[in-house]
Specification:
heterodimer; A: 157 residues; alpha+beta; Ubiquitin-like (UB roll); DNA polymerase, domain 1; 2 domains; 5-stranded mixed beta sheet; 6 helices; 5 strands; 35% helix; B: 685 residues; alpha/beta; Aldehyde Oxidoreductase, domain 4; 3 domains; 7-stranded mixed beta sheet; 28 strands
């Protein structure tokens, strides 16, 4: 399979040279040092590896780098570029919507996408939109609260 | 290290070493201290010549927010802002020995030690200020990171500059009482919150070292299978791949002693290389399956099974911890010395395992534990660390060994399964006439009833486990409390008494248990609950790890589908250290407990786990969540106890009792409804 030599990650063109059949997850973590994207299951069941590709949530563990060449990839490291937190990040902090925090990057990126399509989501819409994500520490009610709060302060920012 | 060498390690300034009295530290003491520190010290704190406050503990942060609560403890006693305190945790070269972060022990044991160290440092600063200004000690106040006396004011660094003062204190220094706390007892936000929401925090599996390779291990096809032959030529032919064979000094249950692994430039090449290994295995002898394991427990009970009559049987399935971050380690060798970064609740235990396997002295093994992606009692052993170190030694490069989910759900250890037999009788007046309780295999936590029972017969029966098993959040109390509290419900119904009134009557000796039951019932509206078709209400209570819990649940059961609608849990663990984080623990324990209550179970047969992936092992998700309300009973007059575990033990029996209320069906198994509620033969009292 052809090699991929460039990826558009967090608004920057990153040079690399990797097999197009490798997963986006391993390339982000091992080749680009973007370890904010987490491995949880490798089969798309926990969504800890969620990133945004052209604004849409994608499971990096099940996405080959060859599929995303030329597309805009956003990882958690790119959400607060100048150090100013995104409203969803702020809301997660204010709601204490984490314990170990390992699921948090994926949750936040999914929530950012959710708020773009549903600027004022209902509880049911949040549950449906977020149900692919596992928080083993059980902070689900706080995540729901955080997403409502982010919606209230313009979470689409 | 000798005490006078302390400042060589940390620089000048002032330091407080808290000498550990016997039992203040979990896991014993003596001869296993931090590499650079005296052997008998449980915690220490240092204020550098730049005024930077650094505290050290062998405890680790795994999501339970110990880093935040311990930092708040320093801020409280030292009168400094939370943001100015740095905490070094779980680093075997820098922190005192610790037997492991377990048993909800950090708050009752380490938290007061850190506070004492900080309180003593504060008094040392007062002494320094008094000398500096030739002022009366009583005129000096310490606040907001400064000492002040009249017109004089000085930051900590001005006071500690040029000093090399060290003070050793006993573990009984007086502390600020809870009623006067200003920082402790408040909802200090998670210290590492910003790093987490920005993805900057480095978990153990995020560790990187220059020249690092990725490792993978060849695991047997079933528990107990033995490696008969190995052809590694195809794997070795892959560029950059190193194949390694070694025998473990201590074989692992189920895995054995033969380590065959690879180190490769990236994780996917490591996977390909392991797949290219051609191994033949000698199959293991027949092993029990998850369906016949309960009979196996009883057949293999030491001293034979219980002889009691009229006992009802509860079964508790093996379940998996499923920490979202699987086990992970990076190992690096430098001139015969080993450094390992790994996710573990026991960095000193992992160091001991590494020392034993590699025959190394203490000073040659350094274990560092970055704040990790949870544990729940499931990350005590050093398997990943040993694997990484074996591969790194052979490869001559640092090696990362991050377990996959399948490996985590097969080769880690499980919460033990159990067979529990219960019998008893209630008198018409609501007292308990007889009580008998037998646990096979899972353990003694919450084996003893907290209720007033004459002639109780309660016994743990050791037996054989077909699976590797170990600690889990609140240990066997998850199963024992389920069986006891469900059976208490059966007894209450047998005499037509309200389950809350029955419990309160029999908890007359325990005001704290009564208080949480009353608090939960009031918030829930227990007295005014209205029975409707297919809806039910249940409650349960318990005591464990210094905490008291009571849980009320409302469920609906529709065509066998159980939906938990609302849960109210009251929890009391002495003086509350951080209300928001405590609520988070209570909510999280309920969420996690719902999985074990309703659908989590490890299925196995022939030495193979079939529930080895998240697509085959269901854990609670957003859609499973009830409305959760917590009631914190804050007892400022009582010592603070830990809260990571006890809040998990109320949910399963509360839900079980609510299912009975809704359907008349008594479900005596955890999980209760893995594929929905199944009509079973009734054995009601």
């Amino acid at each position: 399979m052809a090699n991929i030599r460039e990826l558009d990650v967090n608004g920057t063109r990153r040079r690399l040279d990797v097999d197009a059949g490798r997963t986006l997850l391993s390339v982000l973590r091992e080749d680009l040092d973007l370890t904010g994207t987490k491995y949880g299951c490798g089969e798309g069941q926990c969504a800890a590896c969620t990133v945004l590709v052209d604004g849409q949530p994608a499971l990096a563990c099940s996405t080959m780098v060859g599929e995303v060449a030329g597309k805009r990839i956003l990882t958690i490291e790119g959400l607060a570029p100048a150090g100013k937190l995104h409203p969803v990040q702020e809301a997660f902090l204010e709601a204490d919507a984490m314990q170990c925090g390992y699921c948090t990057s994926g949750m936040i990126l999914q929530a950012v996408a959710l708020l773009r399509s549903h600027p004022n989501p209902s509880d049911a819409e949040i549950v449906t939109g977020m149900n692919g994500h596992i928080c083993r520490c059980g902070t689900y009610p706080r995540v729901v609260r955080a997403i409502h709060a982010a919606a209230g302060k313009g979470g689409r920012a | 290290m000798r005490r006078r060498d302390f400042f060589a390690a940390v620089g000048g300034g002032i330091a407080v070493l808290l000498v550990d009295d016997a039992g203040a530290q979990q896991g014993g003491r003596g001869g296993r201290g931090g590499q650079q520190m005296p052997q008998d010290v449980g915690a220490w704190l240092h204020i550098g010549e730049d005024g930077v406050v650094t505290a050290y503990t062998g405890k680790v942060e795994i999501g339970q927010n110990a880093r935040t609560s311990l930092t708040a403890a320093v801020a409280e006693e030292l009168r400094v802002p939370v943001a100015s305190v740095r905490f070094i945790m779980g680093d075997t070269a820098l922190t005192p020995f610790d037997g492991g972060t377990a048993g909800s022990g950090t708050t009752p044991n380490m938290w007061p030690q850190i506070r004492r160290a900080a309180a003593t440092a504060r008094e040392m600063l007062v002494d320094l200020a008094a000398q500096k200004w030739n002022a009366d000690r009583a005129s000096i106040s310490i606040a907001n990171g400064k000492a002040t006396s009249g017109s004089h004011t000085a930051g900590f660094g001005e006071l500690t500059l040029g000093q090399k003062l060290i003070k050793t204190i006993p573990a009984n220094v007086p502390l600020t009482p809870a009623t006067e706390w200003k920082v402790a007892g408040t909802s200090v936000p998670k210290i590492t919150g910003r790093e987490i929401v920005t993805g900057a925090h480095k978990y153990p599996s995020d560790t990187k070292r220059p020249g690092m390779l990725h490792g993978k291990i060849l695991y047997p096809p079933q528990f107990g299978a033995k490696l008969a032959s190995l052809n590694q030529s195809a794997a070795e032919a892959i560029p950059g791949v190193k194949v390694v064979r070694e025998v473990l000094a201590s074989p692992r249950a189920g895995f054995g002693g033969d380590v065959v692994g690879v180190a490769a430039p990236d994780s996917e090449t490591a996977e390909k290389a392991v797949a290219a290994l051609r191994a033949e295995w000698t199959p293991a002898a027949a092993q029990p399956s998850s369906s016949d394991v309960y009979a196996y427990f009883k057949q293999n009970a030491e001293g034979g099974p219980a002889a009691g009559e009229g006992l009802v049987t509860y079964t508790i399935a093996y379940i998996a911890h499923v920490p979202l971050e699987p086990r992970a380690a990076v190992a690096e060798w430098n001139e015969g010395k080993l450094t390992v970064w790994t996710g573990t609740q026991s960095p000193f235990g992992v160091r001991r395992e590494l020392m034993a396997h590699f025959q190394l002295p203490e000073e040659s093994v350094h274990v560092i534990m970055p704040d990790m992606g949870s544990g729940y009692g499931g990350k005590h052993q050093g398997d990943a660390a040993i694997e990484a170190a074996i591969l790194a030694k052979a490869a001559g490069r640092p090696v990362q060994r991050n377990w996959t989910r399948e490996e985590e759900m097969t080769w880690a250890y499980f919460r033990p399964g159990a067979l529990i037999e219960v019998g008893g009788k209630a008198n018409p007046d609501g007292t308990i006439a007889a009580w008998e309780f037998h646990n096979y295999n899972s353990g003694s936590s919450a084996l003893r009833t907290p209720y007033h029972v004459p002639n109780a017969h309660e016994q743990l029966h050791q037996t054989k486990s077909p699976l590797r098993q170990g600690s889990y959040r609140c240990l066997a109390a998850t199963g024992n409390n389920f069986a006891r509290e469900c059976y208490m419900d059966e007894l209450a119904h047998s005499i037509g008494m309200d389950p809350l009134a029955f419990r309160l009557k029999n908890a007359s000796n325990d005001d704290r248990l009564r208080a949480v039951m009353e608090a939960a019932a009031e918030k829930f509206g227990w007295a005014s609950r209205k029975k409707t078709p297919n809806h039910g209400f249940g409650m349960a209570a318990g005591f464990e790890k210094g905490g008291h819990v009571a849980t009320c649940a409302e469920v609906s059961v529709t065509n066998g589908a159980v939906k938990v609608l609302r849960v109210v849990e009251a929890f009391e663990c002495g003086a509350v250290v951080n209300p928001e984080h405590l609520r988070n623990q209570v909510e999280g324990a309920i969420s996690m407990g719902l999985g074990g209550a309703l659908f989590e179970r490890v299925e196995f047969a022939g030495g193979k786990i079939s529930t080895n992936r998240l697509s085959r092992y269901r854990v609670p998700r957003f859609a499973d969540m009830p409305v959760i309300e917590s009631v914190l009973v804050d007892r400022k007059d009582l010592t603070s106890a830990g809260a990571g575990e006890c809040p998990i033990i109320g949910i399963a029996p509360a839900v079980g009792n609510a299912i009975f209320d809704a359907t008349g069906q008594r479900v005596r198994s955890m999980p209760m409804a893995p594929q929905g509620l199944v009509r079973a033969a009734s054995g009601a009292v």
